[in-house]
Amino acid sequence: MQPEIKITECPRDAMQGIHPFIPTELKAEYINLLLQVGFDTIDFGSFVSAKAIPQLRDTAEVLQKLDLSNTKSKLLAIVANYRGAEEAAKHPEITYLGYPFSISETFQHRNTNSGINEAFDTIKRIKELCSRNNQQLLVYLSMGFGNPYGDKWNVEIVEQWTKKLVNENINIIALADTIGIATAEQIKEIYPMLCDQFPQAEFGIHLHATPNAWYNKIEAAYQSGCKRFDTALKGYGGCPMAADELTGNIATENLIGYLQSQNERLELNYDRLKEAMDFSVRVFG
User: Fold this and answer.
1) CA within 20 to 30 Å of 93's CA: 151, 153, 220, 252, which one?
2) Is the pTM value of this prediction over 0.85?
3) What is the block-wise mean pLDDT of the chain (285 residues), using blocks of 10 residues?
């Protein structure tokens, strides 16, 4: 029997680039609705510098307001350094710590203020921290399909860093198309290759796209065997450094529609999903 589809809903990614501060109570109310939908995971917040991402400075306060009593969803928090991981690890409600590991040297500096090798050392320390605290590390292989900075990129580099991660017993990895440049052909080449070479790992995919470019990417990932997708309702958000302001997350409702067309049975509460979609207007305006 094939593993079930896992959808990670990403309100954190949707919110992080918004400049007017979203009130803590409003964030918590929205995420509590998402928790009732039945997503596998909620990417709810980030333990990073308040100076770097002001919108997420209240992640710990939001967490305190979440109702986890009647949900199957797991919580994911993003960290960008070891200090942030220590903060996240204090909260046993969090299942996953997510670390953005870029194979672009330039973007790694821009995103975490460290080089690739230093970031890899940080990953190893965070992995040990997670093991001690019964949490799991999810590494995003960001700029996984290319970069706009002129840094060298090819499939062999993707494979090389994936092998290093797996050798450190990091077995949950998401290929991240940080700026929305992945093509269906790239996805069909890279995703199956990694799955075949590293069967002990679970590979997900975190794609960004313009509103008219999502379908081919989702289709390519699904046809390549992907079972773990990151999306955000209505396609809100995306990386604040994206070159195109229309390059946001892929809309969760589009992913759901595609999966239903493939006869995938999704155990979701569609009434709560509609409520969350309606409520999202209050959050994102």
Assistant:
1) 252
2) yes
3) 81 93 98 98 96 95 97 97 98 98 93 93 98 98 93 96 98 93 96 97 94 93 97 82 62 97 96 98 92
